[in-house]
Amino acid sequence: MMASQFSSLFLEIGKTNPWLTGVFFLNLCLFTLFAYRVHLHPLSHVPGPLVAKCSSLWLHYHAYVGDECTRIRRLHEKYGPVVRVAPNEVDIADGDAIAHIYSAKTDLVKSSHYTKFAVDTHTTVFSTLETTDRSARLKAVMPLFSASGVRESKPVIEDCVAEFVMRLKTEAESGRVVDVLNLTEAFACDVTTACLFGESYGALKETVAPFSVAGYFDSFLSPGRFFYMPTATWAVLEWLAAALFSNKQIGPSISSVNSYVDRLLKSSKTKSSSFQGRLLSQGVPPLETAAECKDSIFAGGYFIGVVVAHILWFLVRNPDKYAALRRELLDSRTSSESLPYLQSVVKEGLRLSMPSPARLPRIVSKDRLIVQNYRLPPGTNVGLGALQLHLNPDVFPEPEKFLPERWEHPTAEMRRDWVPFGMGVRSCIGRVLSNVVILEVIKAVVESDLLAGVRAVQEKIEVKEWTISQLKEKEILLAWG
Ligand code: HEM
Questions:
Q1: Does the C-beta of 434 come closer than 6 Å to ligand 1?
Q2: Which domain of life is it from (predicted)?
Q3: pTM of the full structure
Q4: Which carries the bigger pLDDT value, residue 366 or residue 141?
Q5: Non-local CB neighbours of 454 within 8 Å, separated by 6+ positions
Q6: 464 with 356: CB under 8 angstroms?
Q7: CA 99 to CA 426: how far, in whole Å?
Q8: What is the mean pLDDT of residues 153-173?
Q9: Is 235 helix (H, G, I), strand (E, B) or coil?
Q10: Of 9, 189, 222, 440, whose CA is between 20 and 30 Å from 412?
C-alpha cells in the first residue's frame, strides 16, 4: 500500500518537475553505490576514511596537489598498516608485506596506471604491465646493467665525473648562486647516455640554464599528478592541455632529445653492443628502440640527478657529516680500506631523497592476497610506497634527519624497508649503475673540497609526492662565497 502511494506520488512529481525526479534518481543511485562500497564491497572490512571508501576523488585530489604520501602516512597513524585509500585501492605500510606483493612467486602485475608512462604511445620495459612482455628486451640489455657491465663502464663514468667537477668549480668561481640540480641532472644525463649508448648527450657542455633536458624531464613527470585517473580520460586531458596551453620550455626540450635519439639510431653504434644495438639486433623495431632509449635518458638523468643534488645539499646542511666523509676519503688515500662512511652517506641520501615516494601499485591476481589478516580479493590495487617505509620511526629513528651513522649497524628491518629502487621482480634495472655513479661523483666532489664553506639557500626541499616526485621549486640552490 505504502509503496504504491509512494510511487504514484513520485510519478506525480515527475510529471510536474522532471528535473527534481532526475536529481532524486541521481542521489538514490549515488547513495546506493556509496552504501555498497562502504558496507558490502569485498574491501569493506579494510579500515580507512569514509570519503576514500565511497569514492576515488579523495585519492585523485591528493595525487593532483602532490601530498598523497603525507596524507596516507597520517591515515596509517590513525588506522594501522593497512588502509583503504580508494574504493578499490589499499596502501600498506608494513615491510613484511613486500615479499607477498612484489615477489615473482605471487605474480602480481603492475596496475594499468603505469600505461600513462608509455613513450610516444609505445610501452617500454618500465610501463609494460605483464612481466613476460619485457623479458626478451631485459635479457638483451641486462649485460650493460650487471656488476661486470658497470665495471667496464668505469672509465666512462670517471670522465663524466671529472667534467662535472670542473663545471661545478667554474660555476662556484662565478660567485653566483648555483642551481646544482640543473648541473647534476645534466651530469646524470651525460653519464647514462655515455655508458649505455656509447655517445654522451652533451648536456654539461651547454652554457645556458636550464639545460635542454629539463623540459623533457618535466613532460615525463606530468602523468604523476593524474596517476590514478583512467588512462583514456587522462589522454584526452593531456591532448586538451597541449592544445590550449603551449609550454615554451617543454616543446624545444622534447625536440632536442628526439633529435639526439634519431641521430643515435642512424649512427654506426646501432651495430655495436650498445643499448640500442642490442635491442635492434633482438628484433625490437626502431621506433620502440627509440622509446626505450628515451625512457633510459629520463630514468638515468632525472633519478640520478635528483639524488646527487639532494646528497650535496644534505652535506652542505650538515658540516659535521661532510667533515667525517672528507676525513674518511683523505685517510683512504693511505690505506686500501673500503669507504663505509661514503656508502652510508649515499644510502642515507637515497633513503631521504627517494625520487619514487608513492605506492607502487600491483593488481591482486587470481588468488586473493592476505595481508595482516585482511583478505584482499582479486582485482584489488595494492602496494607499498617508499615514503611510508623510509619515514617509519620504528625502523628509522628520527626518520627526517640525515644520519649516515645509522647504516653502520643496520637492523634486518632497515635493510628490508630501504626500497629506493623499488621492490622484487619489477625493481630497478639501473640500480648497480646508479649506485656506482652516485658514489663516484660524491667522492670526487668531496675530495675536491668544493663544498667547504658553502651555504644552502633553501631550508627545506619540498616535493610533489607523485609516483616519480618533482621538486616544488625545481631547483636546489647553493651559494659560494
Ligand atoms: C637513483 C637512481 C634510480 C632510482 C632511485 C630508480 C628507482 C626505480 C624504482 C623505484 C623502480 C620501480 C618502479 C615500480 O616498481 O613501479 C624502478 C624501475 C625501473 N628503473 Fe629505475 N631508478 C634509478 C635509476 C635507473 C636507471 C639509471 C635506469 C636505466 C637507465 C633505470 C631504469 C629502470 C627501469 C627500466 C625500471 C622498470 C623495471 C621493470 O619494471 O622491470 N632506473 N626504478
A1: yes
A2: Eukaryota
A3: 0.94
A4: 141
A5: 172, 316, 478, 479, 480
A6: no
A7: 12
A8: 96
A9: helix
A10: 440
Which range is most confident: 25-34, 156-165, 218-227, 277-286? 156-165
φ, ψ of residue 310 to 5 degrees: the values are -60, -45
Distance from C-alpha of 38 to C-alpha of 54, rounded to nearest angstrom? 6
- Domain 42-479 CATH superfamily: Cytochrome P450 (1.10.630.10)
Q: Is 420 in the pocket of ligand 1 (CB under 6 A)?
A: yes
Residue 430 Cα to ligand 1 midpoint, Å, equals 6
Could you tell me the distance, in angstroms and rounded to a whole number, from the CA of residue 126 to the centre of ligand 1? Answer: 7
Ligand 1 closest atom vs CA 420: 5
Lowest-confidence region among 46-55, 193-202, 224-233, 348-357: 224-233
Q: Are 85 and 49 in contact (CB under 8 A)?
A: no
Q: Which long-range contacts (CB under 8 A, 24 or more apart) does 72-77 make?
A: 72/359, 72/385, 72/388, 73/387, 73/388, 73/391, 75/48, 75/49, 76/388
Ligand 1 touching residue 116 (CB < 6 A) = no
d(CA 428, CA 434): 10
Contacts of 265 (CB under 8 A, 6+ apart): 276, 280, 286, 289, 290, 293
427 lines ligand 1 (CB under 6 A): yes
Q: Each residue of 67-89: pLDDT tens digit?
A: 999 999 999 999 999 999 999 99
300 lines ligand 1 (CB under 6 A): yes
CB 456 within 8 A of CB 478: yes
pLDDT at residue 337, rounded to an integer: 60
| Average pLDDT estimate for 278-303 | 96
**Cα dist from 65 to 62, 147, 431, whole Å:** 5, 39, 29
**Cell triple for 132:** 613476460
Q: In whole angstroms, what is the distance from residue 32 CA to residue 18 CA?
A: 21
Q: Say what the pLDDT of residue 14 is.
A: 67
What is the β-pairing status of strands 109-110 and 362-363?
A: antiparallel
pLDDT at 131: 74
Tell which one of 196, 428, 433 to mutate to probe ligand 1, the residue whose CB is within 8 A of the most ligand atoms: 428
User: Which tens digit of pLDDT belongs to each residue from 348-401?
Assistant: 999 999 999 999 999 998 788 899 999 999 999 999 999 999 999 999 999 999
pLDDT at residue 104 in the model: 82
Rounded to whole angstroms, the Cα distance separating 112 from 104 reads: 18
Locate the domains of the chain by residue range: 42-479
| Terminal CA-CA length for the chain | 88
Exposure string of 377-395, with b = 16+ CB inside 10 Å and e = fewer, is eeebbbbbbbbbbbbbeeb
Amino acid type, 113? H
